[in-house]
Amino acid sequence: MTKVPACVALFLIISGLAFAQVKSPDQFLGYKLGSRFTPHFNIVNYCRQVAEAAPEMVKLEQYGTTNEGRPLLLIYVTSPGNLARLEDIRQNNLRLAGMTSDKMAPDEKGPAIVWLSYNVHGNETSSSEAALLTLYELVNPANTKTKEWLQHTVVIIDPCINPDGRDRYVNWFNSVVGVTPNPQSFTREHAEPWPGGRSNHYYFDLNRDWAWQTQVETQQRIVKYNMWLPQVHVDYHEQLYNNPYYFAPAAEPYHEVITPWQREFQTIIGKSNAHYFDQNGWLFFTKERFDLFYPSYGDTYPLYRGGIGMTFEQGGHSRAGAAVINRDGDTLTLWDRLYHHFTTGMSTIEVSAQNATKLVQEFKKYYDKARTTPPGEFKAYIIKADEGCKIVRLQQLLNRNNIEWCKAVNASYTGINYFTGKSGTVKTDSLDIVINANQPNANLLKVLFERNSHLSDSVTYDITAWSVPFVYGLTTYGLITYVTGVRKTTDLDKPKIKALNGENSVAWLIRWNGLNSVQFLSAILQKKVKVRYAEQPFKAGNEDFDKGTLIITRTSNQSLGASLSGIISAAAQKASIGYIAVSSSFVDKGFDFGSEKVHGMHAPKIGLLAGEGVSSLSMGEVWHFFDTQINYPINIIWANDLSKNILRELDVLILPDGNYRFLADRMLNDALKDWVSNGGRLVAIESAVGQLAAADWGIKMKKGDDDKSDKTDDKKDDYSMLRRYENRERDFIPGFNPGSIYKVELDNSHPLAFGYDDAYYTLKQDNTIYEFFKDMGWNVGVVRKDNQVAGFVGSKLKDKLKDGLLFGVQEMGQGNVIYLADDPLFRSFWENGKLLFSNAVFMVGQ
Asked: Are 597 and 591 in contact (CB under 8 A)?
């Protein structure tokens, strides 16, 4: 008999005691998992309990906090041997991707990294409950299968990506449910109130933010994701409760950079899931609805980072409550939903363990090929710097996605201009940047920068165009050769502040050319600084200044005394912008600062409508913009509470995308018109524009050729009208615009377009376009014929989307109505629209 050393025996005793202390979710929570919803704090507590009870197998890490202060967690679960060398495994995984500076050869037989993400949509609650059961079974000493799987995998669990949204839903539900959940779908516990729990604190859809990282939850999570780069990632969701379960393989279109192996493993996973579902008699579907194209999802982003990204969707959602009777007459419970998610999670870990070596080898092959033979039509990109700091925000986006870039040198190159589509010569300087495609993240770079994406199928789940140069409005050239002689960097450019004459200045001049200018204006307006802006270009102090330039004169701000220059300097430093101080109000060219062509500004009191009928996503974009990007106070008002008394307190009222009942109420509609006529500014976004058109405000929706009434009766025998039911999705496509980029021609002499050249690129997601104003209005942004730049547009819409208005201003008495038919703040990543929106709020009508 072999004697066990005393130290080993002691370790085994301690280890056994630790495992004995691991409580199941039922034991820890005090109720059967699935019988009620678990608040986020108890999800956190359970994960901590498991980590403390099984330290040989589990490591818990807090990677961030939400807007509301809730912790964001990762739990690493693997075999004791793997956990002891967890950092070595992580570093080796990065070596496989060519993302370490050391020269060590990677081990291609290392464990596969499997990352499971739960509850990105807060009211799709069953997945976080499933995460608890999955965590327990991975460490449960009685489960011998999982111990074998963990020899070949490191499982990373994010139990709740969106704690703020989850708790918004769970706290509401727990406040309205009785002792026993009511499964009747028409009862109140199945109808959560506005804004719902799907989104985060600022009402953003975190599942569409992976690449753009506009939200704090995403920004913090992707830092960790970049440190690990898993081979397999699953994003857990819920769809409406009458739907069966969905899992991979996904629907077409697949983006062309997705590899054969990535396609193949989707099918391998799908067959394994199907095996377990078939054993239990559970229904499911694959290859429908959920495609792999738009780059910012929890399935596509991991694919473009070398892994296998998948979405799993359980029927349920907020409408399911804790139990619901579906259309088959069956009662779907929370336990059913979480157990289905648990099953696919365990199946995924099992299959990943069985294919660990292949997963790791294909992962390395993916990155090797990216560095040596990158995809796409261009081998390098030149991005010209702008004066408005958009280049800095682009550098930040690149850094967050680990895309390598370089500072340019003074040189000349030949490339394709993104905006003209023509070949030309571009001269670069040290403020421009260069991106070479032969780098680890070549595939993600190609996807984000492609001028026009190739669609294998036009039935898509999201937008079909997102090309970064158009998003940022930065002149970009694609080159067919690499650029040499430049160095990689992650350092962000900081604009230089140019200040002349200091305390002796009579005026300070700040160019109006981007978000940083808006941040500066916000800061000084809140310091009670009186500001003016120039309607026309001018020249002063041997410098040229464009329309919209902010002018702060000492004369207008005598009450601030000597503190004025310090206020301006501090605001400029915080906003990272330059300014010029001049010694005279006399200009060398243009209009002097006392001219009527130089307009005074005041700090507007702004209202934003929210509540029933309002798109929470659109409202959230505006709220987030004011609250986190320009730090300007805003008054959020329930749409149903809007009244004359409230309007008297406002200078600007913003109507996000939505459906406004008060516009159909004659008295309220007239009251709103009176408010505008008395000097108010109404900003309408997307569908709100259409409602104003229907309410006879003066703007008219443009009708397409097929809407005209001169059709003849001989059309009644047109057999093309006969359609097959099985083709109903395809028949919808000719009139479909899921999201494409259009060139908008701007009248940049109008304040709505100050800071722009003569063109702007908009994301168009519908078929609406408006007639040109003939009088009492300004056609600031129009679309002409053949102005589509990128993305898919149905054949029936192409002729309609031309010769019409998208952005306009209507003068009404002393006030203005600003029409923004497309969303300039789309998901907060459409950077070039932020100045347009700011013009609507701060410039128009001042």
From this structure: yes
